[in-house]
Specification:
The chain is mainly beta. Helices cover 0% and strands 54% of the residues. The chain has no helices and 15 strands. The protein has a 4-stranded antiparallel β-sheet, with no helix packed on it. A 4-stranded antiparallel β-sheet has the order 8-9-10-11, with no helix packed on it.
């Protein structure tokens, strides 16, 4: 739900509903995620930024592998968790929020803490200069996202 009581739902396509439940627009952009006041869609291989007011797709980033989910927007970049080319090589990519261009990929994730039981997939991020701490389904990890 947005601050103005509009609601974004997904039923095979992304749909914006007005506060009284009327459809305002729909877009074929994948499951919706709102991060930092911006609307993104993820269909598992493509990440799209969608205009909140019109439903227009502003850009689409196509991943060569599965996109697990979107976790945060920081310094003009949306963080996406992606599958690696081989088992155990999952990583994060950064996508420019204005253009959809690839910004960076972090294949070097250093486990800081391995939980005894899985943590529900609701990634949480903490930013400190070039290092980002991420809590996901598995271990707590640190990734380098800058210099």
């Amino acid at each position: 739900m947005l601050e103005d009581s509009r609601v974004v739902v997904w039923d095979g396509q992304m749909t914006m509903l007005s506060p009284d439940g009327q459809e305002m627009w729909s877009a074929a952009a994948g499951r919706p995620t709102i991060l930092g006041g911006l609307l993104f869609g993820n269909d598992g291989h493509n990440v799209s930024r969608v205009n909140l007011d019109t439903g227009d797709i502003l850009w689409t980033y196509s991943s060569p592998t599965t996109v697990y989910g979107l976790g945060a927007v920081h310094d003009g970049v949306v963080f996406a968790g992606i599958a690696g080319a081989s088992l155990g090589t999952d990583s994060f990519v950064g996508i420019d929020v204005n253009t959809g261009a690839f910004a960076w990929q972090s294949d070097q994730a250093f486990a800081l803490y391995e939980p005894r039981a899985p943590i529900p997939f609701d990634p949480q991020f903490a930013f400190d200069g070039p290092i980002t701490i991420v809590r996901t389904l598995g271990p707590l990890v640190a990734i380098q996202t800058g210099n």
